[in-house]
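Fill-in record for Arabinosyltransferase.
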Amino acid sequence: MGMASATAPEVTRADEPRTRTRRRSFPRWWPALPLATIAFALAIPFAPVKAEQVEVSWPRAGQPAHSSVAMFLPYRPLSLDVTVGCTAVTAAAPGATTTAFSTFPADSADARQGLALQIRDRQLVGVFDDREYPLGPVPPGGCEYRVHAEGNELRLAVSSPTGERELVRAEALVPQVVAFVTDLPAGGSAGAVSARAQADARFQTSPTPLKVVLMAGFAIGALGCVVAGFRIFGQRRGDPGTKLPWRADAVWTGLVGAGIAVWGVLGPQTVDDGWFLGMHRNLEASGFAGDYYMALNAAETPAILLQYLFAPLFQVSWAPLMTRVPAMVAGLAIWLLVLGITRLLRRYTEAPRVPTALLAAAFAVVWMSSGVGLRPEPFVVLCTGISAYTAVRARLGGNPGWLVVGGLAAGACFAVTSTGMLALIPLVVGVLFTAGRSLGTQRTVVLLALVAAAVAVASPLVFLNSGIGGFADSAGARYWYGAAQSWYGEFSRYQMLLGGVPEDFSFEQHPARRLPVLLSIALLVIVVVLSPRHQPGHTFSGVFSWPFAWLGLGLAALLLTPTKIASHFSALDFFSALVIAYGLAALPRAFARERAGWVIRFSALFIITVVLSLVWYGPNSWWAYHRFGMPFLDQHLAGGLLASPAVLVLGGGAVAGAFLLWQKHSGRRGADAQPWHTRLAGWTALVIAGGSVVVMPVALVALHGKAALNQHTTGSWSPVHTNLASITGQTCGAADAVRLGDGSTLTERIGQASGPALVDWPISVWYPCARLPVLADGLVEPPALLLRAPHQYGYHGDLTRSYRPHGGAFAPLESVATYRETPAALTGHADPAAWGTLSEVHYRYPTDGFDKQVTTTTKPGWWRGPTYASEDYTGQPAP
């Protein structure tokens, strides 16, 4: 019905705001406000920070030296000092080889990355960097050997009462340390060997009083810019816009809110929920948001805003449903912004009317496809939505002060993730169409200055605790270890969406993932072809055309983002929702008013048919535990029937033909003068697209509801079970349903463990009671238990315990620990290993044989640590 009513020809005046603003004179001091605000923003990254220095000494004070696990992260401390007494060398048996000190067990495959001091036939030999350095006979009298490694230099010397003599000076990195190892007899080792290392805790920084003052100054300035923007540019006189009813939109808002809540319980996890969970859970212990599982736990700067923002909420519970609450709240806010822009267009323009039901369906398609979890895209979409709403309101409502608010949203988005740059697009478009044209030069300069000051909010958010040097270290590590790609690698993102990826990433090809991306691109192409066919004032003109421009610019902007996975398309959800809704609602009018003939309409039918065939051809594949009980798993939905172009055209044509017959008999044909077969082609394309938009959300709810029901019927656990249990009380997730060989549950085993449980990131979100090992002070807390991901995702979990290729944070475990698998199975599940495997971690040495002391110092904001974004640092090539 909404589409039918859209066929009547109307004059679009979306580009002409029907309001006046009261012009105000500028106070002479106005340039000082934005300039001072920007100055504060520029100074913040360079302001000094408080840095923690961590000194690790071995053995513990007052105790003899015995081997001890000491897993450093990053792998190489900032400095290492080792002392070996000459008496330990001379006391060795003649002809024997003994390890006086080593940073790796001798049989470790990675020992070449460490340092060893070996006693061979009563002479000390230094071994590092794949070379041996004999140090010669022991000098007479009391003496000791000393090793000092720092920066790119390692020095060995011998000290005696007559002075110190340098024996070796070599260009080498500080050795990696996973343990302090000695084979010297424990009884006689007191004072014979010792070591001191400064752990690399470069990201454990906090603001100094000066930095706090600068941030306070910026906050005051930014608030002043917002107030100044509204006061300088005045208020509307009267409200000439059309009064709009609100009850129907309120009802749809309630339905959308209910749908978001249901999907929060029922919907799938995102691929990186466990990855981001590690960052959130380690924040309190380390004081910074780091890449917990890989990239040497490098800080996520600049993408840190969400971790700090949600920390208080996650103190309540780590239940999976609780971790979804922020994304669900963001979803409702995004809907209100989508609806808000649509209501602005209804109120102030004569653009085609977009039915709220169609808008809700388009929103559901893009929202549900992204998953509800901890990935940052929903919050990029939220910032983008705020930026878009303020741009539209500034243009149509006649008060450019709204653009300053949009600038704050766009600036904040830079602290969310790399795709946050998308929030700049609506802001820039809004400024271009608002400034200059109606403001004049002076007022345009004022507006640009205020908006630039607002966007500068990125600086205090990004550099809340760190300086520009920490940002450079973080960026270097994440680009090196994070598999970042150049701009021309963007094709891989589309390839991942359409096929040609490993089996464990086939979930990216699901029809729900493909639909919002491919359909919005198809509608963008059709609109671009239609728009130049008519004089100014065509259907897709003025503000009504902005979402299509935003989407085109957004697709181009993704070229600049470093990671190329299909999940990043979700950052375009705000644009895609508007493009799908506005395109389907307005194309009937556009076909009629722009006098589109058979070439354009049949071309549109061809494009839509091909795109929807590709969409429905995607396999019904899901990530991790959401595969449990899933009907039609890894198959084409409806047996591939919906992917058949013939079925789509015939089915859509039948519905479109019936609609055209109804139009003819009811006398509501409208102004479309094209022959019936031409009109049939256009309407068939719209029916195919609109039908898919309506069917997809229903199909998703049905699939996940059926999967949960299948699991419940067999008495097995499902993610939905944990989410429902989170509503009524405490739950330990999948651990409650995993039974060990002795009949106890995994929850009980975790509670009895002597230390934390390391859970592989593909599944960690479903084990809220498992305390993850702490990564802080440049050290790894030794885990007592290891929960491996199921075999299909084993490779991803293994990366966290491997130096190759992405700098696994728990790689040191492989050298100092062994794993003993404990029989366990998921209750009611046919495959005992479907949930993963449980292993007890056994260490070769005690884990508490060293002391740690943390002190604080002040460093300039530009201070950087030694680079670890290199092949030499891990001994592995770039990923």
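KEY FINDING: The first strand starts at residue 49 and ends at 58.
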